[in-house]
Amino acid sequence: MDNSVVIVGTGHAGVQAAASLREEGFEGPVILLGEELDLPYHKPPLSKTFIKDAEAKPQPLRGEVFYTGNAIDFRPGLRVERIDLAGRQLELAGAGALPFGKLILATGSRPRLLPLPGADLAGVLSLRSLGDARLIREISAGCEDVVILGGGFIGLEIAATLSAAGRKVTVVEAVDRLLGRVVAPAIGSHVRQRLEAMGVRVITGTTISHLEGENGHVTAAVTSSGERLPARMVIVGIGVVPNIELAAAAGIETGNGIRVDGQMRTSAPDVFAVGDAALYRHWLTGDDARLESVQNATDQAKLAAKTIVGHSGGYGAVPWFWSDIGDMKLQMVGLPTGGDSHVISGDPAENKFSIYHYAGDRLLAIESINKPADHMLGRKMIGAGFSPSREMVAAGTDALKPALAAFEQAQSATAVG
Predict the structure, then answer these.
(1) Are 389 and 210 in contact (CB under 8 A)?
(2) Mean pLDDT across the stretch 358-376?
(3) What is the dihedral sign for C-alpha 290, 296, 301, 306?
(4) At what angle are helices 153-164 and 185-197 packed, to 10 degrees?
(5) pLDDT tens figures, 40-75
(6) All domains of the chain, ordered by start, with CATH?
């Protein structure tokens, strides 16, 4: 019987799954398949240092010696065309079939396409891969005007980076505020103010009707109200779509992602899914969730490896995220879904504050700007199930730390008793 584990995808989830299998003592073959030719790399820096610095190099997730030293069979430049569950093998484009004992799908996600006239013009780009970042860096070096469609994390990170590099940047967001899907209005408003102060033009509540071009290259984005926004480069950041097609075609259960249970198993025996593409019932909210973050990818990959070697624990990682936008380090912990009130700690005028989200008296999430201590303590509090009073929050971390310690001591005493 084949005892190999084949991993499809070489992002954070795929590479961590390979590493964790070895850390957990798995001794069978580990094969890591990726479509890109580069050594697997960190994606967060692509929207920041990499695109503004012509000399910047990609940051490998692991050095080449990691793969050879741990007997991980890394195979770049391969695309999986089909999963044959009955035959327990993968059909590879131009490379025959590859059998597997167990399969981990770390297929990630891809940028949502822009359904507009002119979207196929040169200079209209999205950022998801190293190749995308190289192209953005190359074109931005020779252009003055950039239009970014979408006021989410990626779009705003790029906006801040290119503006700091001297480009005239306009952000166009269809809804009435930035980061509307992911953070509190106060955070979105603060981010907008800081971006505008550094010269970024932000237009909300507006859509683009079409893109104009000349000689096959984009020259402008035209808004629904008829305003013409000059642009030698248009970056599309309107969200992502999970890569579920391989799983769906094989008959594996999917929805807004590849559905998995608490141990990262899909509906198919010996097939797992982790990372951006995995859809699961979140322990914090009780609702279906598909989280797009390095933390989620890493923790799910670790759990899948544990499951494969025989551990039975479920997924209970505390979700946390971050984004660097100009001079703002935005950090989030927990999920604010279902919140009915919040408390602000710190001073937005100083560009240092946190928003604590509550449902009744239960702490759900904390969003921080340039308050790393709040974030780190928040990860501990939510992980422990501790909800501080609003008075404690107002008193700051000096009050929260001993309160958390006392809560954990009481919990430990109760468990022992």
Answers:
(1) no
(2) 96
(3) negative
(4) 20
(5) 999 999 999 899 888 999 999 999 999 999 999 999
(6) 5-110+241-308 (3.50.50.60), 113-238 (3.50.50.60), 327-416 (3.30.390.30)
CA 50 to chain centre: 18
Q: What one-letter code names the amino acid at 265?
A: R
For 105-125, the pLDDT digits (tens) are: 999 999 998 889 999 999 999
Determine the Cα–Cα distance for residues 240 and 249; give it in Å rounded to an integer: 20
pLDDT per residue as tens digits for the range 219-239: 999 999 999 999 999 999 999
Give the pLDDT band (50/70/90) at residue 417. low
Phi, psi of 211, deg, nearest 5: -110, 140
| The overall pTM is greater than 0.85 | yes
